[in-house]
Amino acid sequence: MTLPGSAVLVLLAAEDAGELLTLQRAAFVTEAQAYSNPHINPLTEPLAAVVAAIEGPAVVVFGLRGPGGRLLAAARLRLDEADDTVAHLGRLVVAPDLQGRGLGGALLSAAESVAPDGVREIRLFTGARSAANLRLYRRHGYVDAPAGTEPAALDGVVFTHLVKALGPGLCDDAAAPSRVGPGAAPATPAQSQVGPTRGGKEP
Ligand SMILES: CC(C)(COP(=O)(O)OP(=O)(O)OC[C@H]1O[C@@H](n2cnc3c(N)ncnc32)[C@H](O)[C@@H]1OP(=O)(O)O)[C@@H](O)C(=O)NCCC(=O)NCCS
After folding, report:
1. What pTM was computed for the model?
2. How far is the centre of ligand 1, averaged over its atoms, from the C-alpha of 106 (Å)?
């Protein structure tokens, strides 16, 4: 995986929660404006919930840090409760001043590299009117998800659900970049350009 500029993939820890929440709120303001709803979850989520997500055993919260350690972008990957071959990607955020430079695409690639072993499918959703988000996801191989049990709308925002099947080699190839997750080996120094560095705890 190639990251833009000198960005480094990191796993976020509880002590990063305040920084993450600040980035999340800044990034999601434009979505709130687009849907005329200042109460969307990413803007109302309390700090304790961000900490809980980071500390949750089935969630990988990861980010991209730039020069000086600035948190440039972040996202969460949550294992499905009923099917551990499925992971849900959410809360994709890129700092407002850095959007449109490839960091969002890098987050999508990073999600695949931090997905726990055994994950075969990543699902995500976005507002049905968020055309730029949908373009980005489709360009990265996401396709419309079959109609299912996911909520079609929340807080007045109608969602489009997308899914990407991961190739079998991605998880099974011993030569693939290391991934995080239960029982996974940490990245070796030789992999540090593509593997996540530790921002704290094991996910
Ligand atoms: C959605 C989001 C994460 C995308 O991040 P991003 O960094 O802007 O994404 P990218 O830069 O990879 O791609 C966005 C656009 O920039 C273009 N781009 C990518 N690299 C580029 C580069 N080096 N130079 C110029 N343009 C570039 C992409 O082609 C894409 O163009 P498009 O809009 O015509 O499709 C970001 O906009 C964001 O935080 N939005 C607010 C929160 C949100 O809506 N999150 C998603 C909820 S589901």
Report:
1. 0.85
2. 10
